[in-house]
């Protein structure tokens, strides 16, 4: 049997472990779920590797297929191509070198933008393919340089001044 002196100490240790262990695990879980930044990389980096940063609520990576899926408030940053994007979901297919963004997609690149329900980015071609929602259209805004456009402000056209002619009362008193 346990002595009266050791019993409370034993229970205190047991109580302490009971309280501390779950909080230690919760702290570890909280740290891992707060890490919402992912550098999408499924193969070892090479000299020409550039970071693709994805932030989202949930992310999954499949090493066999080389597909990384991000869901919920997705933000994508690809500085090498000067691309920023937001979507409900993003999938990076590392073997095919393409990114599929779905759900209220907005992409910004060098001041140009595209908005649609689904946007596919073909990395090797540097090409976007956008699909709208049903009965909607894709919207793109492009910055177009125009070297022929006069950069100086052109003054408004001159409006000719009109001077009213004096009215003459040359009528005869008889009304003619």
Oligomer: single chain
What is the radius of gyration? 34 Å
In total, the number of strands is 9
Alpha-carbon distance between the termini?
141 Å
Output the helix-strand order: HEEEEEEEEE
Spell out the CATH superfamily of the domain at 37-141: Lipopolysaccharide (LPS) transport protein A like domain
Summarize model confidence as the mean pLDDT: 77
Q: Per CATH, which architecture of the domain at 37-141?
A: Sandwich
- Number of contiguous helices: 1
Sum up the overall morphology in one term. Answer: elongated
Q: Structural class given helices, strands, pairing?
A: alpha+beta
User: What is the CATH topology assignment of the domain at 37-141?
Assistant: lipopolysaccharide transport protein A fold
Largest sheet: 9 strands, antiparallel
Name of the top-level CATH class of the domain at 37-141: Mainly Beta
Poorly predicted tracts of residues: 2-7, 9-42
Report helical residue fraction: 10-25%
Beta-strand percentage range: 35-45%
Describe the overall structure.
The chain is an alpha+beta fold. The protein has a domain at 37-141: Lipopolysaccharide (LPS) transport protein A like domain (lipopolysaccharide transport protein A fold), CATH 2.60.450. The protein is built from one helix and nine strands. It has one helix at residues 6-34; strands at residues 37-39, 53-55, 58-62, 67-78, 83-93, 98-109, 112-122, 127-131, 139-141. Strands 1, 2, 3, 4, 5, 6, 7, 8 and 9 form a nine-stranded antiparallel sheet that branches. Strand 3 (58-62) and strand 4 form a beta hairpin. It is elongated.
